[in-house]
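Section 3.1 - Work completed
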Amino acid sequence: MIGEVKRLLDSDLEKAVALAGQVADAARRQEVKCFEGRALRHRGLGRFRQGEMAGSLQDQHAAIELFRACGNERGLGRSLQAAGIVYGSIGDHAAALEHYRQALAIQVRIGDRWGEARTRNGLAVDLMEGEEFAEAIEAFAEVAEAFSAAGDDLWSYKAAVNRGLSQVEYARSGTLGKDAIEAMLSQTLVESASLVATAVELGPRGGTLETYARQLQAEALLELGQPVEALALIDDAMRMATQAGEATVMIELELDAAKALGQVGKATEGLDAVDRAAEMAKASGRERLRARSLELRSQLCEATNDLAGALAAARRSNESSARDQRNAAELRARVARSMMEAQEAEMDLALARAKVESLESSTKRLERLLDAGRHISATLDVDGLLEILAKQAAELLCSPEALILMFDRQRGELTHVAGWGY
């Protein structure tokens, strides 16, 4: 039955988790602790890949206690290693390293070469999560060799995929020059194409290898500025990941799709994809992926001139690494600058409008003065002319009425001669 669970882990996670639970229940009733531990360890692996972190940790810790009770060191080492993977995924790197350390000590002592390779793979993943990309690339190369020496070519290929993903992350980190980035990504693209071909050749035995390899191809293409080609690969990989129930890969692919859609001018569709990724990451406790989704959401909002949305996403980001914190800080600063520039632009526009209105008003006054001059030149009717001037004076002064008075020097008083509005 455990063999069937292991087979289903690479094809149907839901069935694998359900069957592992049934096997564990049966073993518990018969008080076969080691067999129950194996079933719980495999159910924990399935739950991890489904994104159920709490359930996965619960299963692994239960398996650890069962293996200790029955003296199964091989099972104990592998459950400690599996717990380390889960802790690393939720960002508790101290707990991850402690579980890896315990697992490695046991596996080296008993000569469990395959288990040791898995634990070293986990340590390499932790290096990548800790942004020590150069060390991670080297470590994954050693892991691939270790799996090959242990007679597991499939896991050797998966380690090669992780090495490629480390190269992509290294290229994204901003610590390499342009030429170095292009050379590394071009190499990654060639290697990922070879891995896809290998996965296709392996067929069902390759399990999820093709999904991971296509994801790697897509990410390399994205970083090389080829989003259209990347989207086609993302669609294929998403279909495979959905069919297998690979929650982590699905989140990462949604983020890749969002980035690619943003690059081809479809930022609104990209926002839909990034929101799906954020929801899945939040539900499964994958804080690093959630932080990535919020960072990407802020960038896409900025691309659509939704500066308030961009700033809100940057503020909500719960960064779990120094690079995430730097990116979020830079993004908040950039959005703040954009908002200040927008406010300044609005003020400039308001000032320009006021100047235009003032100019229009001055032009109208000048036109009325010229009109008054034409009337003075064109008429000999003084009384009629004075009434026209009174009307135009009222309009120029925006007054409902105007009055023209003449000073009588002999009498020393003002005399009404014309008016408007009286």
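Second construct:
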Amino acid sequence: MNNSCASSLHFSDTLPTLEHDEEILLNHIRDSGAISKFELVDRTGFSRSKINLRIESLVKKEFIKEVGAGDYTGGRRSVQFSLNGSMGLILGADIGATSIDLLISNLSGEALARYSEPALVSKGPNVILDRVCDLFEQMIEKDGLGSHKVLGIGIGVPGPVNFRLGILVSPPIMPGWDEFPIIPYIRNRFPDTIVMVDNDVNIMALGEHVKGVGVGVDNLIFVKIGTGIGAGIICDGKIFRGTDGCAGDIGHICVDQNGPICTCGNRGCLESLAGGRAIALRATQAVKNGEATILKKYLENRTSSLTCEDVGNAAKEGDTYAIELIRDSGQFIGEVLAGLVNFSNPEMIVIGGGGSKLGNVLLTSIRRMVLKRSLPLATRNLNIMLSAISDDVGVWGAVNLALNLILSSNKPARISTQHPEAIFR
């Protein structure tokens, strides 16, 4: 491993402990951006003396700072408080099947550095995680952030995650990653730093909830259409992971018992018919079979097969076959989502991932099937829309995954490098 930059970086050896009342105040401050003591009294129901005491404590612990007076409403202007961006850095990594996306933020949620590059997750955890750490160190040095402590790191990965242990469990497209100790491995480069790992779709749901169209929506389903298909579920304002962390794995719901064999070994799974890879393979086969489609000209520029993006571009040119292929995929996805709507009654469904760039043809097809197959009451207040921050939703979710623990009163005073599960005891 390359440790050339490590000696010049500063890491969070310990984080100040928080009382439960302080956590409540921090969440109100985080949601508001800036807020006065008077407003905190009104929102929390805490007494003025308790607010004064807790605010003083949070300032001493450097979690918050004064940011001047609020708008004038008569009388003396109230001093406002915000999260203290200079307390340290939070790093977010969204590791996809074919890419790495990285973001560095401060505690107050300001983006300080952003980077993406192609990468094959199939190369294994050592190669990919070393590259992530190398890139973070380079970004910190390049952007002059080396004097700041690294408080936490959030990581999203494209496979089923045991969230308590921070490990992948039998990921179908990630050879060598099964039960690999991601958290200790990252801490070898970033010692005594909070490291959190979750499924990539869960962090996307979180990112949409805190930065995208899902802000203020407490019951939301984020659907990632990429190489495969998955869903992240926000229930009552929190990520719902289920007992073992695999809630939302809708890509392996059967939609055609006579369908193609999926990467999981079963037949007719949703992602084997409507995922990005499936759309590309069906389009490629159609061209080879002589289908009358302008996709033929796209295939001539490819070494082997078409991409999902090619299908979207052909549809924009009015190609009938490409449009029908996207509509078929949307119907499969919409049928599965209709079951989720009937079951959980969300307020919003957000479509993201690379497949979302298929645009309104896909979105309209999904909407029609959801409305057709769901109960009227379940769809009365349902919004189905494309992600507004699709390219950044994963990295913002990863940053906020770590931030949630940093601002929690339920974290260890010192982070163990041997037992990451201790964080959740």
